[in-house]
Design a protein that fits this description.
The chain has 54 residues and is mainly alpha-helical. It has one domain. It has two helices and no strands.
Length: 54
């Protein structure tokens, strides 16, 4: 959506779009955290990996 499209949209629609994007962002951040934690868990459990010796 570009700025010319935003001009013709009402406030309620803009707030709804912002809410949707905020929710998507929160979900993406949570998913990223889950993936990073899983990668760290796998890295630590890999035999011979320096982090696994801690």
């Amino acid at each position: 959506m570009n700025s010319s499209e935003l001009v013709v949209i009402g406030d309620a629609e803009l707030v709804e779009e912002l809410s949707m994007l905020t929710t998507q962002t929160a979900r993406m951040r949570a998913r990223m955290a889950d993936i990073m934690a899983e990668l760290e868990r796998r890295r630590r459990s890999t035999p011979g990996h320096p982090a696994a010796r801690r």
